[in-house]
Amino acid sequence: MRKVNIKWLMVFLLLLIYWPGVVYAQEPEPPKPLPLIDWQELKTENFIIVYAVSLQQTSEVSKTSEVSVACEFCGVAEAERYAMLIEGLYRELKAVLPAKFTAPISLRLFPTEESYTAVNPLAKYIDGVTAHTLSNRTDIAIAIPRTVNLNEEQFINNIRHELAHLLANRLSNGKLDAAFQEGLAQYLEKPTADSANAPASLQLMAEQGHLLTWSQLNEANAVYANPSVTFPESLSIVAFLIDRYGLPTFLEFIKATATEPGYRSALESAYHLSADQLETDWQTYLPDYSAGRWQINAVYSYDLTRGQNMVKQGAFSDAVTELSKVVELLKTTQQTDILTQAETLLRQAQQGQQATRLAHEAHAALKNGEYDLAIKQGQAAVEAYYRIGYYVPIPTIQTTIYRAEIGQRAMERLNNGERLLGMFRFFEAEQLIYDATLQLQALDNQPAAAQGIALLNRSARQQSYLAYFLLLAGVLLLLANGAHRLINYWSANPLDVRF
Description:
Elements (H helix, E strand, L loop, with lengths): L1 H22 L12 E8 L3 E12 L7 E4 L6 H19 L10 E6 L2 H7 L11 E3 L5 E5 L8 H20 L6 H10 L9 H11 L6 H4 L9 H19 L1 H10 L6 H9 L3 H17 L13 H8 L3 H15 L5 H32 L3 H18 L5 H29 L3 H17 L3 H46 L8
Parallel strand pairs: 2-4, 4-6
Antiparallel strand pairs: 1-2, 2-3, 5-6
């Protein structure tokens, strides 16, 4: 068996050596040059649409003159079709991916398969590629023959897809990895009847264990090796990151890729979680995604659950930050009903934020001994929380109000005690001051408690001074009486002296 294998191997090697000589008795003919394209431009506000007017091929007869070649997709009609759509779609997506361009964007429409694959050789080997965007440049190339069989929805989504690449390239300085690029471009396509195919395919691949790791997916050109597997997976990754953490954070990640050494450090910079942790969370998320969560889309079918939970849990400042961005995003989309809901949620969050501020002011006022202000702000906070139906902090605020009312009454008693002290009504004054001081100490109002102690000391001193004064007055009276008697004794006649 081993000898047979070696024998056939030798035959195969000999064939490889001599086969070219058998096939090519003469040099092969050089490939026919591509026809020359006569390009023209159609300008819009932000785009220069470059289209083919005609094709010219060198004459095989004269070898010098050029003859026209039939061109089905030459002419201005196709360019005008793009011109009618491109500006509106550009504004729509630029509201989501706010990249800035200083020069017009070039949109080149290639009229033949050969002319397109000459600039994008990879397209020869990947089914479904109809266009591409050049990294670090403002150029989009579209193969017109490959778009012929697209319906209107698919045609418009094809433009969206390439515009998403263009904007993401600009935001990331051309450094966003292909897997995230393709995932985002798919995410920003408007959902169609075919949108369910990707999650169904993803679920099947997950069950069969064919999904790639994020590291494998982001290797050079790996996402294009098997698009039927990698494209649904890349879409699910982007959907997970936006669904779980919001579109603004995903934009931070895109921008971080411009300066970070790789996608892993960019993820950690934006999400404050390691790429491994995010990948683990994504794997946990996949069953829900395949079961229907894929229908949630921040641009076309926004899910307000995240904002609603923030409001329900009392995270009003975070909710205001999140929902402010959501409202601005939704204003650029056609999600009118969801926009109305988001605006209502935002108002509730703002009211909750105001209620929280009032509650903090009430607590601070209580701590500072400003009891009138604490009661006023506390009552306003309770009313504000009742208006939005958030009751969790109300018992705490009511306790603050109750303690402030105790402090308010204690201060009134302290003031009344001081007034009575000035009237030398020591017993009544000391009782009021003593009770007030105890309450103020319990409220940790040390300055007011010190004032109470000072008043008690003052009362004690005043009573001492009064006692000394009365004692002195008594002594003086006795001395005066004695002196009076002595004077009477020495000045009276002997017969008038009485004992």
